[in-house]
Amino acid sequence: MEKLAIEGGKPVRTKEDFLVFGAPLIEEPEIEEVVGCMRRRWIGTGPKVRQFEEDFAVYKGVKHSVALNSCTAALHLAMVASGIGPGDEVITTPMTFCSTINAIIHCGATPVLADCDRETMNILPEEIEKKITGRTKAILPVHFAGRCCKMDSIIKIARAYDLTVVEDCAHAIESEYHGQKAGLFGDIGCFSFYATKNIVTGEGGMVITNDDRIAGRIKVLGLHGMSKDAWKRFSDEGYKHYQVIHAGYKYNMMDIQAAMGIHQLKRVDKYWLYRQKIWKKYKEEFNDLPCITPLDPEPDTKHAYHLYIPLIDIGKLGKTRDWVLDALTAENIGVGVHYLPVHLHPFYRKTYGWKEGDFPNTEWIGKRTLSLPLSAALNDRDVEDVISAFRKALFIA
Ligand SMILES: *Cc1c(COP(=O)(O)O)cnc(C)c1O
């Protein structure tokens, strides 16, 4: 085997050609649509946002979809619109991005964590049940990496205790479980179109729900709390008065963003198939290495293939995950870490008293997790380079 770049060998790629983790595929139609918005000079919330919402609702087979400027905003409003606030508890996973927790905190509620499974990395229904108290109002499952949580059990628990279910579908645009699409198991589903997600609008998010009241509230709350269709106040229908009916938020999506989303959404299945191919190739190529490759999708489910995470077998390798991370960076391959356990960040430790040992499975994953590039933007050579670099880093003679 070649000498590693971290030890002075020649890297798999040159520095100039660094493979950026999570770079999206942007194609001509969205570039033209964005430029078109700018030329027409309607760049804020308008007809493109409306169209993107309609297209997404059709894609999901849902009654309402409301576009917002992030999934974080979507999670926040989902809870506010569900009446969750101070004194309430919301149960979620410590194996998630910080914004899942922050959204709970910002609506005034208290985040309560339930450990995840080591293999699926998803929240464990039995752990959720242990955390339910008289104050619990909602469960916020995260479909980690694009694999659906055990939604049959989670919905059963939610029904038994009369809890709202808000799904964090940031990784799960395409995911399905037992014939149901992600975002539609519970009351509200929240999606992200952030730059590294499966389809992108730069920044952007979407809420989906079949509940008319919730959808109406989210629409109003997302645009300053102004009454219905206030975005039209400067349109060619002429100026319209609006009423402020809540102290709302500035969470609306812009037409420039939706212009990208409309075209990206048309290719959602094509991109998914392409990432599936890369995922399968990685699995074949990494079988013999000291790492645990992700489980195959369970029967009667669709995995969104958002992240490819080979858990590093640190015992067998005799090196830490951070060493592997540095080794791949030296090979000029960009990687990600999803995630360091959320409960161990200083703010949450200080505020909620969470500490090492609280969530053993999450901490076990947190020490071993590493995400390799998995994007529709990768070409064959990129994929080969990732494979070469990862094999080089994990090779043990
Ligand atoms: C990306 C992400 C979010 C936040 O999405 P934004 O659109 O960036 O606000 C929330 N939860 C998870 C699990 C994510 O990966």
Distance between the termini: 9 Å
Percentage of residues in helical conformation: 25-40%
Multimerization state: single chain
What is the count of distinct domains?
2
Can you tell me about this structure?
Helix 3 packs parallel to helix 4 (98-106). The protein has helices spanning 28-40, 47-60, 71-81, 98-106, 125-130, 151-161, 212-221, 255-266, 268-286, 314-317, 321-330, 346-352, 360-368, 380-394, and strands at 64-68, 89-92, 110-113, 136-140, 164-168, 176-177, 180-181, 188-192, 205-209, 291-292, 301-302, 311-312. The N and C termini lie close together (9 Å). Strand 4, helix 6 and strand 5 (164-168) form a beta-alpha-beta unit. Strands 1-9-8-5-4-2-3 form a seven-stranded mixed sheet, sandwiched between helices. It has a three-stranded antiparallel sheet with strand order 7-6-11, with no helix packed on it. It has 14 helices and twelve strands. It has 397 residues and is α/β, with parallel strands linked by helices. The structure holds pyridoxal-5'-phosphate. Residues 70-72, 96-97, 99-100, 142, 168, 170-171, 192, 194, 205 line the site of pyridoxal-5'-phosphate (PLP).
